[in-house]
Structure formats: structure tokens, C-alpha cells
Q: What sequence folds into this?
């Protein structure tokens, strides 16, 4: 079954660069260009993974989304790939290595820009990890 | 900023004749003047009137002039204070100046003396306010610069690079080798630009005080092996062997592992960058008296004697005919970090033979 992803990012050019790769890899990608729209989509529809930008609007508005997810029993199970331009000290030091912000059960952080191969790998592995976890609970 | 026309002066003195003559002298000037006959009244006025300059008689019944001074500085430390004192008590004027008074006005005084001291006091107040404003502005610039740089410069570059990735990915089967190479070149240059911005951000945001607050006893192996691990792929690409001779257990040092790791990433990265393919980089650790010395030796192009004093300055790259591109900022950051650890970085080098960097860090006393 086609996996459905939501991307929340306010930079249309960057979104285009990510979406093209994921479309090509057979994912169905929906985009929200601001946190409000994104939150609404999350609450009304179901996704297999969220791609989340942190620095949006007037500051780190993506954090707000991540916090809301953490509090929501159902949304908490959805894997999140945080894609940020924000220079995370660790991301800067060890590029490409997995960093888990642990906002939700299954998440990882990568820095913009993201290599196509790595992007697809991360998306697939996060979805798989989340599914395995969920299956284990039942 | 208040201009001279609105400068406010408060005079606190129990002698009516002093208040009267001061008022008289400043009559017709553009200053706003208020007077008080004792400390209590003066302090109340100071809160309400918000003076730029306050004259305080040291000898008054009720609250002493010294206490009035203290309280005024509590109300607003930027208010300039001048004490009025009898000629015989210059000693107490000195005491008052030690407590923060800017100047003193000896009694009796001529109108000229009073005008001069007033003018100097007002000028002082302006300088104090200006300095504070500048300092605040500098701090704001520093903070804002970081976020402006990351947003306004990094974001567009990231978007450009992301779309290049897509192009390359989608066109992979259609491009010939020359076209692929061009695309690769564009990607590399943009990648370097992004890394440069990251380095700038590091320089701007290395907050030495914050760094020090997080110091803990650590073993040097943690940051060193972290750095080695992340630099390994770069070395492998150039077929460079990194030989490290690190024998456990090592005495701990007091520091921050992550930032020290960055120091080693920078130095090892440079060593790789400036070494010919197939050479060796040697890393050793030893204890010398109260210091831990980490030596990183390469057989690279070397640094000329005239360049050595400048390599830690930032935005500097050796002129010795190197064709390498880089940012010349890693070593500046590294030195900042090592300085914060009360350590030092030294360099020995010979052109064409190689370079040895030695990072010296004091051992934890505990």
C-alpha cells in the first residue's frame, strides 16, 4: 500500500526538492506550508510519517508541533523525521549520523539539505521501526 | 537619548544659600533644576524627577550624604553623582568617589567651578548611557546575526542544494560524464558555502562562559575517538592512514567533550586536507607535568614560518602555494575552545615535511 506522508515546511522551493524525491520513490506526499495548516492536517487525516521543519514563521514554530504530537496518544505513534536548517551542534559535528530528538517514540533529525538516498532510507526505516513497535504492542 | 537641553540636575544640600546660589548660577541655562534640603526629600525627588546629575552635600542632618549616594546608585546606577564638601574635608570626598561618586565640588565654589563640574557631569552621564546603549546593541547584533545568517543565507542555499540533488537524481541516466561532473562541481561549491556559514555561526555563538559552566571531569579518549570516527571517511577517501597511540587509562581533564571533539575534528580535518594521498597521520597522547598533551602529526605540505603566527586568526589561509579551498576559521574556533579550557595549541611545521599540532590541556585536579 502506498505510504502517505505529510511535510510541514514554509519554504516552497525546499519542499519541491524533497517532494520530488519522495514522489519518485512512490510515496504520496501532502504538504502544509505553515504550522497551523500542518496541525489541522494531522488532526483530521492519517499519515504514515511526518516530515517536519523546525525553523518556521517567527522562530522555532516546528517545536510547537512536535510538543503537540508528544501529548497526543494517537499521534505519538507516528514516526517523525525532523528536517531542519537549524545548526544543531551535534548535527554539525557528526553529519549523517542518526540523531534522535526523542520528541515522539520514533523520530530522527537530519540537516538541510538531504541527500536523496539518505532521505529515502531514513523515511523507510522510520516507518518500518514504527510499524514494528506498534505490532509488538498488540 | 536625552539631549543637553533636557538634562536634569538635582541638588541636595541643607544650606539654603548653596541651593540658592546654584539655582542662580544655572539660571538662563537649558538645564532643568530641582533642589532638596535633606536626604529623604532628595531621594524621593530622585525617583520622581529622574535626574541625570545629582549634587549631594556630604554633611547633612538626617540621612548622611554617603547613604544618599548609595541609595541613588540603587535607584539608577547610571545617574552621575557629585559630592559637595567643605574644603577641609577633601578626604571624605575621596571616600565618596571610591563609592562611585564621579567628582566633588569643594565649598566655597565660584560660579565657573560649578558650571564646569556641572558640564562635565552631564557629559559623563551621556557617555555612560551611550556606552550602555552600544553594548546592548552589540549584544543584540551578535544574537540576531546568528539567526539572520542561518535563516537568510542558509535557507536559500539549502533549497538550491536540495533541488540540485533532485536534478542529479532524476537525470542520473540521461547525463553524460561531463555534465555529471559539472553538476558535481556546483554541488561541492554550494556544500562548501553551507559549511562556511556553519563555521561562522560557530564563531559567533561560541559562548565561553556557557561552555565553562558545563565543564566536567572527562577522559580525553571520548572527544578524541569521536573526532577520529567522524574524520575516518575523509581519510579513507585519500588513502591516508591515521595511527593513534592512546593508552588507557588516562588522567581526566576538566572540560566539555563535544567542543573538544570539534577541536580535534578541525585539526585532524586540516591534517587530512593538507596531506598528500597515501601518507600517514599520527596521533599520540602523553602526560607532561600537570598537562595532557595531544599531538597530531602529519606529513603534509607544512606551514611556512611567516604564516604560523596567523593561522589562528580566522579567515586566514596560508599563502604557501596551496590550491586547497577552505574557510580558515576552524583553527580560530579551536583556539577559542582550548582557551576556554585554560589550555593551549602550539604548532611546529616545516614546509614540505609536515606539521605537528599539540593541544595542551590542564589535568583535572580532583
A:
Amino acid at each position: 500500500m502506498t505510504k502517505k506522508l505529510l511535510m510541514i515546511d514554509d519554504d516552497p522551493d525546499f519542499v519541491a526538492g524533497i517532494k520530488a524525491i519522495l514522489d519518485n520513490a512512490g510515496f504520496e506526499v501532502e504538504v502544509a506550508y505553515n504550522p497551523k495548516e500542518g496541525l489541522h492536517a494531522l488532526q483530521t487525516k492519517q499519515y504514515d510519517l511526518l516530515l517536519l521543519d523546525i525553523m518556521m514563521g517567527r522562530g522555532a514554530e516546528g517545536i510547537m508541533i512536535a510538543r503537540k504530537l508528544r501529548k497526543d496518544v494517537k499521534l505519538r505513534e507516528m514516526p517523525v523525521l525532523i528536517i531542519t536548517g537549524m545548526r544543531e551542534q551535534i548535527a554539525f559535528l557528526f553529519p549523517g549520523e542518526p540523531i534522535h530528538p526523542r520528541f515522539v517514540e520514533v523520530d530522527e533529525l537530519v540537516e538541510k539539505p538531504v541527500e536523496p538516498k539518505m532521505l529515502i532510507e531514513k523515511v523507510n526505516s522510520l516507518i518500518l521501526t514504527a510499524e514494528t513497535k506498534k505490532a509488538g504492542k498488540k | 537619548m536625552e539631549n543637553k537641553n533636557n538634562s536634569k540636575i538635582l541638588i541636595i544640600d541643607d544650606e539654603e544659600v548653596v541651593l540658592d546660589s546654584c539655582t542662580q548660577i544655572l539660571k538662563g541655562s537649558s538645564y532643568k533644576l530641582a533642589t532638596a534640603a535633606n536626604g529623604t526629600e532628595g531621594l524621593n525627588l530622585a525617583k520622581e524627577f529622574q535626574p541625570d546629575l545629582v549634587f549631594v552635600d556630604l554633611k547633612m542632618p538626617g540621612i548622611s550624604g554617603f547613604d544618599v549616594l548609595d541609595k541613588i546608585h540603587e535607584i539608577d546606577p547610571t545617574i552621575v553623582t557629585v559630592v559637595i564638601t567643605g574644603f577641609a574635608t577633601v578626604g571624605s570626598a575621596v571616600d565618596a568617589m571610591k563609592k562611585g561618586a564621579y567628582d566633588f565640588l569643594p565649598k566655597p565654589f565660584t560660579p565657573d567651578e560649578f558650571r564646569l563640574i556641572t558640564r562635565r557631569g552631564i557629559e559623563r552621564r551621556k557617555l555612560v548611557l551611550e556606552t550602555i546603549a552600544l553594548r546592548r546593541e552589540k549584544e543584540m547584533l551578535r544574537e540576531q546575526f546568528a539567526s539572520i545568517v542561518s535563516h537568510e543565507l542558509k535557507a536559500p542555499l539549502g533549497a538550491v542544494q536540495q533541488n540540485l540533488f533532485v536534478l542529479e537524481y532524476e537525470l542520473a541516466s540521461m547525463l553524460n560524464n561531463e555534465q555529471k561532473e559539472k553538476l558535481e562541481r556546483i554541488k561541492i561549491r554550494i556544500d562548501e558555502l553551507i559549511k562556511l556559514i556553519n563555521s561562522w555561526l560557530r564563531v559567533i555563538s561560541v559562548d565561553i562562559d556557557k561552555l565553562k559552566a558545563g565543564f566536567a571531569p572527562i577522559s580525553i579518549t571520548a572527544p578524541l575517538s569521536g573526532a577520529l570516527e567522524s574524520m575516518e571517511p575523509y581519510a579513507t577517501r585519500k588513502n591516508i592512514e591515521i595511527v593513534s597511540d592512546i593508552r588507557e587509562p588516562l588522567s581526566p581533564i576538566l572540560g566539555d567533550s563535544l567542543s573538544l571533539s570539534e577541536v580535534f575534528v578541525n585539526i585532524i580535518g586540516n591534517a587530512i586536507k593538507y596531506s598528500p594521498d597515501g601518507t600517514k597521520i599520527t596521533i599520540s597522547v602523553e602526560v607532561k607535568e600537570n598537562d595532557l598533551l595531544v599531538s597530531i602529526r602529519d606529513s603534509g605540505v607544512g606551514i611556512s614560518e611567516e604564516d604560523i603566527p596567523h593561522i589562528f586568526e580566522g579567515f586566514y589561509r596560508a599563502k604557501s602555494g596551496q590550491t586547497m579551498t577552505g574557510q580558515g576559521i576552524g583553527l580560530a574556533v579551536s583556539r577559542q575552545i582550548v582557551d576556554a579550557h585554560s589550555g593551549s595549541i602550539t604548532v611546529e611545521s616545516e614546509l614540505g615535511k609536515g606539521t605537528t599540532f599539540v593541544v595542551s590541556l590542564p589535568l583535572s585536579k580532583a
Q: What stands out?
A: The first helix of chain A runs from residue 12 to 24. Confidence is low (pLDDT under 50) at residues 88-95 of chain A.
